[in-house]
Each structure stands twice: as structure tokens, then as C-alpha cells.
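Worked Example 4.2. Consider the chain below.
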Amino acid sequence: MIAGPNGRARLTRLATGHILTAALSAVAELGVVDVMPVGEPRQVDDLAMRVDADADALHRVMRALAAEGLFVEVEPRAFATTELGELLRDGPQSLRYVALLHGRQTMPLFCDIVGTVRTGVPVPVRREGRTRWDQLADDPEQAALFNRAMRGRAARLREALRAVDWSDVHTVVDVGGGIGGVVLPHLADERHLHGVLFDLPHVEADAKAAIAEAALADRCDFAGGDFFHAVPSGADAYLLSNVLHDWGDEDARRILGATRAAMQPDARLVVLEDLVPPGDDPHPVKILDLQMLVALGGRERSEAEFAALFAASGFELADVAGTGPYALVGRPV
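Applying the procedure from the previous section yields the following C-alpha cells:
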């Protein structure tokens, strides 16, 4: 069967998706939305002067993104932001850094996707013999961008936490929690909780700064370490938010095993992850799964795959709460 014009147009759009990624990243890097008043149009020439860009080039980029719903060209060469475009405005929950992460760090890796499809080995390991985490540990600038991007995505994860009953929990350890984008707002919501933010030692300064900024120094501590080997013990709950999808099954079992070893019999495990849905319908998690494959060697999983992973690591899957991301609640067995 030969595809008609609509099919050819769709395939062409798929093939050129990287152009939109690059355009979005450029607008985010220049801070275009930050110099635009909310709900009011601004002439491109004025915007270009404010962000040190060429006016004609900036107009063409914004015109392309207006077609995607980020801007509205209210009159020739004058744009206003939309609700979607406002997500690029800098701030604690901004997706600006997610756009920058994909433009600067993720997209270049996908130029080498064929090698990963041939071997199953992520690009950084094939190119340099070390993981993406090793690279970030050696590059503070890239690590800072990564952490800010994760903080921007954290609002979605916090929604899943609200679907879980925390009334009988006193202490929660956020395993691999970065700079606290998920657990710190959760502690603000659940004022009876004490938190431990656990991550690699090089995160400590940024994590403690985030704890102080959230005015939670009296209810949240930082602990440095390696979740493959040992996790702080004695808490009522252990949180893994978007951690397991970074790793293949063998490494995920090691993380869960170290967590299980730290837990009392009545403690609970709360895993925040998106789930791969069945069927052939489009879904962003299926795209995210390819990012995990190429950049990290990780994977997104279905509910059945999580149940099997839990069982192989000393847990039973007791509950799945939320509508996406999901909170998968595990109990030690």
C-alpha cells in the first residue's frame, strides 16, 4: 500500500521533529519569554535587542513555534505568549530547563542511536566507556542544567504523591532525590513528615541550598552515598521518584535490594514512575523510553513489569495510585 499525501506529510513531520527541539531550545536559552510581558504582544525587533539576537532569524523561529501553539503573532512581527509558551518563563516549576536539556544534551546523543539499536549499549558508554552519570559528575555546568530540568518536571510527580495516604508515616527517605524537587514540596504539604534527601555526595551543596531555600532545614537532612550499596535505614517510607527508569532491570534490582535491606518490616516503598500503556496508540512514555535507552541504558516499564521487578527484589506491589505519573506502593515480603 502506498501512503497518500497525508501519510507523506506525517512522515516528513516525524523526520523533522529535531528542528522543533532545536528551535524550542534556542528560545529557552535566549530567555525570550522572560522579556515578554504576560498576555501582551511585543515586537520582534524589541525582543531581538533585549536577548541579543538577529531580528529576522528570531522572527522565523517564533513563527515556527507559534504554529505549535507557544506564541500568537497578533500582528505582523509582534508576538504574545500563550499558556503553553508561559511554561518557558523562568521560575521554580518552569520547563525552560527541560527544553534546554533536550536541546543541549539529549538531542546530540540521538545522532548515534543506530549504534545503540545494534548493541543495546547507551551512547555515552559506547563513546567514552562511562555512563551519563559519570559525565555529569565531572561537568558541574551540565549537572546543574540536568538538576534544574528535573526540578521543573517534579510538579507532575508530586501529584502522584498526593494519591498516597501519608498519615501514618513520620520519616521518608528520598532515594536518589537530587536537589529535592519532589520531596521538599511534599514536606511542605505534609507538615508532620521529616525527610532525608539521599543522593551522591557531589549533590550536597546544591541540595542543602534547596533545603534552606524551602525553609525546611529543621525537617529535612541530606545524606550522601551510593544507592547501589547502602541506603539510610530506619525510615517509615522510602521514595524513589523517576529513579528506576534510569536503569536496566539488573541495576534496578540492586537499587531496590539496597533499599529493601534498609527497611523495617512495616515500612513502605513508594515508586513514582510513568507506566508504558498497552497497544499502539501514541504516548509520550514510549518516546521517553527511547531517551532512557539511548542516554542511560534504562527503560520505562508497564505495571506488570514493575510487579515482576518488585517481586524479584523482595517486595510485593500492594497498590498503584494516581493517573500518571503513578505511585506504585510496595511492601517488604
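The longest helix spans residues 140-161. The mean pLDDT is 94. Compare this with Example 4.1 before moving on.
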